[in-house]
Amino acid sequence: MPSDPSANAPCIVWFRQDFRLEDNPALSAAVKRGGPVIPIFIWSPEDEGRWRMGAASRWWLHYSLESLSKSLTALGAHLVIRDGSVASGLKELVEATGAEAVFWNRRWEPAAQKQEEAVQAMLKKQGVEGRAFNAALLFEPGEVLNGSGGPYKVFTPFYRACLAKGLPSRTQPAPEAIEGSRLKGLKLEDLELLPKIHWAGEIAKAWTPGEAGAQKQLDWFAHGPVADYMEERNRPDHEGVSRMSPHLHFGEIGPRQIVHRLRGDVAQGYLREVVWREFAHHMLHFYPETTDEPLHPEFVHFPWEKDVKGRHAWQKGLTGYPMVDAGMRQLWTTGWMHNRVRMIVASFLVKDLLIPWQSGAKWFWDTLVDADLANNTMGWQWTAGCGADAAPYFRIFNPVSQGEKFDPDGAYVREWVPELAKLPKEWIHKPWEAPAAVLETAGVSLGETYPKPIVDHKFARGRALQALARAKGSPHPDDPQPQLDL
DNA sequence: TTTTGAGTTGTTCGA
DNA sequence: GTCGAACAACTCAAA
User: Is A357 a catalytic residue?
Assistant: First the structure.
């Protein structure tokens, strides 16, 4: 037998947002290296700064860790759980175990990158090997650049450049066995990730966190909805989308596995959305301040309203616009909202109520089980018109026509706004226009059983167009006219 | 260097 | 009911 002593020194695998065994390059490399493997998760919200994990995501994290822990145990390893700052936690572990290497998969959020730099510096000081791998993305920031060597700021050319490179689909199998090491840590319960008040019942019914749940979800999507994705993806009243977002966010499955599973023309439209996720991560990397600041600086002066009542009505799903309220209640109840409806509610907050997009981003951050800093930031900036590929200023969603177009029978509204369930579909998206007799028959009393619209959309649209014109510096009737020097 | 064409997801109005 | 045009100007990407 070879007797190189260093071959048997333990290797720590630091799990972050890559809670899977298949196609997990850090884990595979550690196993291949030989010697004991110490998988570790360190709960360190203080390392995340302003964007520490929200309540719904913490719920998911709890069960994702539970699932990962079981899978590792089945292979012979043991997930060590800790809390506190990652750099100091890893330092202690390296010293306690005599580990000679720490492997992990990269994350791209600004705070996560700072955390990683601190870990690298610590390891260098300790004389321990630190190696980072790519598990999260098809292409990491810097791999897809425009002709001038800079980052793309428009999606379509970025997308074409990705396709030209070929979407990576090679994956690594899960290890068959792992040489473990007994090491004491915290119990999962000690992290107190689950809510103290019991509000997660419906979330639990809707989702199965963990690698097996992710695989099952992808199977379901690949066998059915993917074929009609382009038509059905806009229908919140149908099961037409993949619902992969929380699994992807927590790395219970990686994008390469998705590309591998969905090869073929039928999935092109869906894979385009996966590339949007890539684009969002690249943008966040190159423009890290966009989590809080508009990408386009003229929006710093945008005349936002401080409308506390409006914000609360929006959060609770009591705006009086059924499509908006249905979405907000689906979010609150299940930790997720259909993407089409995300655009509708976001447009309503930002354009109809003129409430800052950051406020909406924060609410989503706390309530979504798939809250992802890159995707969330890109989505909200796009809606507000201040981000990459920004919406033209005149693109203001009409919550009524969007409802009639994408929830034509009102089934989605009926599910999430049950007090309107008996309204005929003719009026379900605009109950304030329904004849009194129709309302009475349906048991709807506006202002009592369901709110009247908190703002008139036509008025709000005009107001938003005016505010946008002013922010952009175009002339406005109320502004002093510049003297023309003719 | 200059020029040209394109740019996720919309709405409204008038023919 | 359906259809096309108008709704700004600007930035980005690439020829």
Answer: yes
